[in-house]
Specification:
Layout lengths: L5 H18 L3 E4 L2 H8 L11 E5 L6 E5 L3 H7 L7 E4 L11 H11 L5 E5 L8 H10 L3 E5 L3 H6 L4 H24 L6 H14 L37 E11 L2 E11 L6 H18 L6 H14 L9 E8 L2 E8 L13 E9 L4 E9 L7 E2 L8 E3 L1
Parallel strand pairs: 1-5, 3-4, 5-6, 8-14
Antiparallel strand pairs: 1-2, 2-3, 7-8, 9-10, 9-11, 11-12, 12-13
């Protein structure tokens, strides 16, 4: 029941092994649920407990280790042989006496993986300080080394099968954005607009179902738009205020993100001018996002335009996007910002997000794009690129 053909996974494993060998890593331990999915197909809402994928250089497929009750899900969603699906007993869950990483260590010992260099995703959201300390205590003859983002950098270039998923996600996010904008009007609660957005996100299209996105919609209104990353409340939209929507479509864990801004009635001073500048900046930055250029060079084009217009933006303008689980749909690799020398390659995908926040209001505009082999990128998301006006 894997999403992709076995050859897709074996190709990924071989590319990861090449990076492992170059880094001198004998066994790779992945706790990031997106990396677990990437290497095995595993997909379950079980990342709230300790779980991982372990990949040894001399084995042809990885080993899944997780909670025993989730082993059935691993058998249903991965291509792994059943002997490579190992569940720990439930008395390891939330126990002050025993830790799942002690079970992992015993499994490693049984497989002869308790010596040599073990790569660990040191900055994974899913690897706790106690989990790492337990690994150190129970694998005394191994050298634990940082393998953060090793798999992520393999993921950054998408296969044709992955791009097909992201194009579906792009269709879904456009439908969700349309549903959200249509529902916004003075007197309506933010939560009721988000309910319509989420319905469109999960409902998907008649042909393709919608998966749950790795992050919830950002839908603040009024003065709350002066800050990024706020979600929603029961506040009601008011006349002569601004709101923006930042959300994603998701299909089989692959994302396409989109942001648009809506003005209800009379716009605040400076909004229309800023919206025009940001739109121009997005267009020149997208045109600059070509294979062979660096992330730094793409951001520099944007920066030059807004600086000339008297504006500045201190944060990055984009990041790689694709396969993801909560709390982030980004891949935590390349960023469109100064000094990022990552060279754009064909089939890399980015979310270019241009957020500009002022003291009492904010403006957001974004697109998800794929780097083309030649020429400007393919913009995956199809939605009018403008400041929307509602009564």
């Amino acid at each position: 029941m894997t999403v992709f053909q076995r050859a897709e996974y074996t190709g990924r494993i071989e590319r990861v092994k090449q990076r492992m060998a170059a880094a001198g890593i004998d066994v790779l331990l992945c706790t990031d649920p997106a990396n677990m999915n990437y290497l095995s197909g595993y997909d379950g809402w079980s990342f709230y407990v300790h779980q991982l994928i372990a990949l040894a250089l001399d084995d042809d497929e990885p080993v899944w280790i997780g909670r025993q009750m989730d082993a059935a899900g691993a058998k249903l969603t991965t291509f792994l042989r059943h002997e490579n699906i190992c569940g720990y007993p439930d008395d390891y869950v939330d126990s002050p006496q025993r830790h799942p990483m002690a079970f992992v260590a015993r499994e490693f010992c049984a497989r002869g993986w308790d010596k040599g260099r073990i790569g660990v995703e040191m900055d994974s959201f899913s690897l706790t300080a106690r989990a790492h300390a337990q690994l150190e205590a129970t694998l005394p003859y191994a050298e634990l080394v940082d393998a953060q983002a090793l798999v992520n950098w393999v993921r950054i270039v998408k296969s044709p099968a992955e791009l097909a998923m992201m194009r579906v996600a792009a269709i879904i996010v456009a439908r969700a954005m349309a549903a959200g904008i249509e529902a916004i009007e003075p007197g309506v609660r933010e939560c009721d607009v988000v309910a319509k957005i989420c319905s469109a996100q999960i409902g998907g299209t008649p042909e393709h179902w919608g998966d749950y996105p790795a992050a919830l919609p950002s839908a603040p209104s009024g003065i709350k738009t002066a800050a990024p990353h706020l979600t929603w409340s029961g506040d009601r939209y008011a006349a002569d205020t601004v709101t923006f929507l930042e959300l994603a479509g998701c299909h089989h864990r692959y994302h396409a993100a989109l942001a648009r801004t809506v003005c209800l009635g009379r716009p605040p001073d400076g909004l229309a001018e800023l919206a025009a500048i940001v739109t121009d900046g997005l267009e020149v930055a997208l045109d600059a996002a070509r294979a062979g250029r660096t992330c730094h060079e793409v951001e520099a084009v944007w920066r030059a335009l807004i600086t000339k217009k008297g504006h500045e933006k201190g944060s990055r303008i984009g990041y790689s996007i694709g396969l993801g689980y909560p709390p982030d749909w980004g891949e935590r690799t390349a960023s469109l910002r100064p000094e990022d020398t990552t060279v754009l390659q064909p089939d890399m995908c980015f979310h270019m997000i241009l957020g500009m926040w002022r003291e009492s209001w904010g403006y957001e505009l974004s697109e998800t794009f794929r780097v083309s082999a030649a020429g400007p990128p393919e913009v995956l998301t199809a939605f009018p690129r403008k400041l929307f006006a509602r009564p």
